[in-house]
Design a protein that fits this description.
The complex is a heterodimer. Chain A is an all-alpha fold. Chain A has one domain: Four Helix Bundle (Hemerythrin (Met), subunit A). In chain A, about 80% of the residues lie in helices and about 0% in strands. Chain A has helices spanning about 10-35, 40-70, 80-100, 105-115, 115-135, 140-145, 145-150, 155-170, 175-215. The longest helix of chain A is centred in the last third of the chain and has 42 residues, at about 175-215. Chain A is globular. By secondary structure, chain B is an alpha+beta fold. Chain B has a single domain, classed as Sulfite Oxidase, Chain A, domain 2 (Alpha-Beta Complex). Chain B contains seven helices and 13 strands. Chain B has helices spanning about 20-25, 40, 65-75, 100-105, 145-150, 205, 255-260; strands at about 5-10, 50-55, 65, 75-85, 90-100, 115-120, 140-145, 155-160, 165, 175, 190-195, 230-235, 245-250. In chain B, the strands form two sheets. In chain B, strands 1, 4, 5, 8, 9, 10, 12 and 13 form an eight-stranded mixed β-sheet that branches. The radius of gyration of chain B is 18 Å and the shape is globular. Classes of the chains: A mainly alpha, B alpha+beta. At the A-B interface, helix 1, helix 2, helix 4 and helix 9 of A face helix 1 of B.
Amino acid sequence: MAIPTLPARYKPALIWALYAIGLMPGLYAFYLGIFGGLGADPVRTFEHLLGLWALRFLCLGLAVTPARDLLGINLISYRRMLGLLAFYYVLAHFAVYLTLDRGMILSSILGDILKRPYIMLGMAGLVMLIPLAATSNRWSIRQLGPRWNKLHKLVYAIAAAAVLHYALSLKAVTAEPAFYIAVVTLLLGYRLVRSRLMARKRRRRNGTAGTTTRSRA
Amino acid sequence: AAALNAKPSGYVLTEKQTSKQDVTSYNNFYEFGTGKGDPINNSGAFKAQPWTVEIGGLVGKPQTIDIETIFKDFPMEERVYRMRCVEAWSMVIPWVGFPLSALLDRVEPLGSAKYVAFETVVRPEEMPGQRGLFQPMNWPYVEGLRLDEARHPLTILATGLYGETLPNQNGAPLRLVVPWKYGFKGIKSIVKITLTEKEPPASWNVMQSNEYGFYANVNPAVDHPRWSQATERQIGEASGLFGGARMNTLPFNGYAEEVAGLYSGMDLTKFY
């Protein structure tokens, strides 16, 4: 599928603009929160919203490969941005949890992390994201070579941890967490069938090409 | 909402009351949707008038009472209670209501009655949370109390808040308020009250019995399996994002002196 591509020289500018746009929901919520525009429980709303945006960017990042495979839309050069946006939202989400929510009371925070599976899952997601964010630069990609790909498969575990962390933090699984569980399941499930799917696609393409050649001959 | 005449009562918390805006816009009432803002946004079509409540089971005088009769026959009182949600937040709400025991006296419970069961109305056409594909729980919402809990002077049926009749999103026209229990025990829009011999089902307990007990007494020492109940965030305490420190949750939500005796000899970690 042909989608309009940008001249290479505009790409960095576009990426910076997309970073700014990607950070908007968080900044806007912060602005609303300061002026009392986040409703009756602003801390919870803000904390929740930052987490949800982190999950959304994780899902978008995981959608890049299937979008290329299945729809022919190549957004690979935006994937680093999506991953880093997810990382920034996770950091902000964690910072709000530590300060505004728990008021930096370390005993309560440590107790929470050690006792609550959903907090443990969230923490695990954050910890696993750190090496990915740290190696998201070109130098690391070159240095690590094929190991970079292996390392960045951690994102599958991160997405699973993130969506479970979200669902378990709620009183009941309502429509919204159910939606994200379905999305993450599809995105991760795709990885299980991808190699077979691609092989079949290649075979079909080769097969078709062969027939064409024969009929021409 | 119409103005209500209510005499002051002895049960008035002196803490700062949660604003009417917050009390009426931040609600859990899944019949109208699972979001906190859903009840106020989706309850416009709900008709709380006319309304009758059917009271039966193990009683000498089963009857169906009109809400107008309830307003006429039971003197309303103002009760300012803290409401502690199982999700670890709380509000201080000026309810208008009357003791449930007064209503129970009228129907004359039999000696065999040990529990009181409650049921919420089912009206999918007026309650969007009760229709559609993704429904989080089974309807009707049901709740129950032990008879001595139901007869306790703190237990009221509320008909209003902030001096006016209940808004739809808060459980119009009649709801239960049991201030020493988690908020989900406070069943809303009640159409049926049944006295029983056996412990009646309670919706959240049926759905997740390891997380929500039949008793659901506020207890900072017994955590929800997935989160701590030791502290709570007071709704409306923070102006914006800052300044809303958590407060320590009190045993029986601060009503231990009045109600702890109801549970003497019971292991509250088992009967949570």
